[in-house]
Amino acid sequence: MAAHKVDSTKSPQFKSLVARWKKDHRHIQDDLDKLFEAIGKDLHAASAWRVQAGPNVEVYKYKQNGSDIRRGARYGWRVVALFDKRTATLCPILIWPKTEWGDADNDLYSSAIEEVLGVLGYCTNGGCDGSMKTTEPPQRSVDGLHVKLVCDKCTCSIWRDQPNEG
Amino acid sequence: MSNAITFDEIERKTEKTLGYAFLAKATTNLAVVAYRLIELSNGLDRLVTIVTPEKIQAMTPEQCESLTIQLQQLHRLLVSVGKSDEIVTLSQVPVLGKCVENLRGRSVDLSDVIDDFVLLSNPGFQRLMSDCSTAIGL
Fold first, then answer.
1. Hey, are the CB atoms on B120 and A52 less than 8 Å from each other?
2. How many separate domains does chain A show?
3. Does the model's ipTM exceed the 0.95 cut?
């Protein structure tokens, strides 16, 4: 196979999810560095599973050991990446720990996807395809730890943890 | 010279023989359980290997949905077996512990296959994939 590169900086969604999981998994970056090194050498490393084939873009799913989970790759991270055949670039886009989605139950999948959509700023109000934006000026909770987000389409609102500065 | 045997000796020998018989029976049962667990793990291994993404893509949505339900039922059974008191007790027996762990591992592999079935047909996940592709310019 021709040489390829891994670009983990391209997807804003991936960065947001890594930041989300970092709260409970302090060593996520070390785990990801190991994964990127392995799949940088071999696209089919880390128990690669081609989820979707395509003429230009393919979807791969990888398994990586989670240092904080300590139960091997089988119970560790799942990383979904898009492989652009034209530029031979692999871009990780989604990540979750298998231990969180282990039950293979439809309700769990729905709530897990909803959580991911929520982390990425999507509106998760039944079928709405809007995005959650902070109010102008930003409305903070009394304790100052949460900010109010309002959907730009259906105008539903939620309170979310105040994002860390920097 | 005396060939006489006391009642106590007869009782002791009988108990000893009975003890060995129980031990042999228990050992046979454990060997059978280990064999069944290995067979089950191998069967799951074969199942996970044949359900490839190419096969998933070649299926109609109805076939996909029906197979997903079957796999989820099987997964639920495996998880409940893996968590049952009997299996937890058996897993403390040295050889069986490894077999039980293998079975639990195969059940996780099966849930990975179910992930692909469910996620690829989930509108929220499709939206996510599509937006991620757009965001990175694909």
1. yes
2. 2
3. no
Residue B51 is encoded by which pair of tokens? 């359900």
Question: Is A111 a domain residue?
Answer: no
Displacement of CA B26 from its chain's centroid (Å): 21
Q: Examine residue A122 and state whether it is found in any structural domain, yes or no.
A: no
Chain B neighbours among A 5-24 (CB < 8 Å)? 10-14
User: How far is residue B45's CA from residue B34's CA, in Å, rounded to a whole number?
Assistant: 16
pLDDT tens across the length of chain B (138 residues): 567 889 999 999 999 999 999 999 999 988 898 899 899 999 999 998 888 877 877 888 889 889 989 999 999 999 898 889 988 888 888 888 888 998 889 999 999 888 888 887 788 888 888 888 888 777
Domain of residue A94 covers 5-100
Residue of B nearest to A62 (CA): B112
CB spacing of A102 vs B110 below 8 angstroms: no
Give the contacts of A55 (CB within 8 A, at least 6 positions apart).
Answer: A85
Write phi, then psi, for A133 (nearest 5 degrees): -120, 150
Q: Comparing C-alpha atoms, which of B56, B64, B59 is closest to residue A53?
A: B56
- Indicate whether this model's pTM tops 0.80: no
Residue A118 included in any domain: no
Smallest Cβ–Cβ distance between A10 and the set B75, B119, B136 belongs to B136
